[in-house]
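TL;DR need structure tokens for one chain.
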Amino acid sequence: MDHRAEHPEPLERNGTHHGVSRRALLGTGAGAVAVGAGLGWFARPAVAAIQDTVNGEAHSDVVDYFGDHQGGIVTPAQDRLCFAALNVLTEDRGELVDLLTQWSAACARITQGLDVTDTGFDGGSQYAPPQDTGEAHDLSAGHLTVTIGFGRSLFVDEHDKDRFGLRDRMPEALIDLPHFPGDTLDPARTGGDLCIQACADDPQVAVHAVHNLVRMGFGIVSTRWMQLGFGRTSSTSKTQNTPRNLFGFKDGTANLKAEDPQLLDDHLWVRDGSWMDGGTYLVARRIRMIMETWDRESLMGQENIIGRTKGTGAPLSGGEEFTAPDLAMAGSGNQPIIPTDSHVRLAHPETNNGVQMLRRGYNYADGTDRLGNMDAGLFFIAMVNDPRTGYVPIQNKLARQDALSEYLRHTGSGLFAVPPGVSNEPGAYVGRQLFEG
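>> reply
TL;DR here they are.
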């Protein structure tokens, strides 16, 4: 089927629209996307077809799916996450490409607050499964972003066999992450051929996105593991306040921000002329925080471990939250006032050859273990332009020297190549540069 067939007026690149609920938009004629039963027609509504108000109130909770970079990277971090790693079951390259094309068409709709197709969850044949699962039908777009990544195992299997004729195109930076000191990884929460990161203001909107992409891939992909997250633990824009993690400290004060394009080019975006140009690498780590031990640590002890005050987030060397830490300042006994094994000192760019990363982590709480201790912590997500230099050395150092490591257990892990964004040209889909370049 020619995916370039009918193609309405494209959306503005990297823009936002006034979002409305799926129910308000369905059945609006030209405002509904003409996507066939198999989502073969890669089309989307024109800007003019998007209503600006609902019940007289203006809304702007739509993040444009199209652009030079995928959404969910420098997009202001939303409050909810649904992250899934998938296994690819098919051995047919064309079938995989077709699924990625269908996913892109679906993402172009659901990020606008629309159902997956214009027939939605209740408008199709009574004798066929609905083309949308329906749980987000009455909800708005909620700043939904969907970010797709490719794992190393998509290129070569455990026997180093070329799976889809892509081995020669596998980036050198897409490594198998090493075993870091203290890792207690669960194989059931590690790896994956593909990843889907859905972020939104509403958890049901995020889950709906992953649910439907997995549903569309039935028989082609299967879910390997999934993680829900809440309460973002970093800010990706200077317009956002710094949030707190489950230890009660402000997290991500020194994070890269969308307003610093030169720093993003230096540390985030791949700039090598390859199919990954304009993309990035996503490191995911499920980090259990040992609450019961941490909660018995004194306030002074907690602040020395982190290297910041718990209240304001200011470095122990003084100032306010965004004051640069003075790592040379002496404290009592002529020892550094910011301890040598503190998290801030060991993670700071000044002690890591200037390396920075964009963090988009989330808190998680997954009940209790068999002893009744909380299984909660940080689902750490970092994006860098080369994990070999931008992540691995820092994590090795933290695992060995950081006083905070005593209170952490790394239980899940993944590394994914996140290709550049999807253009608003006919026939475009996520990863096209890899498969057709």
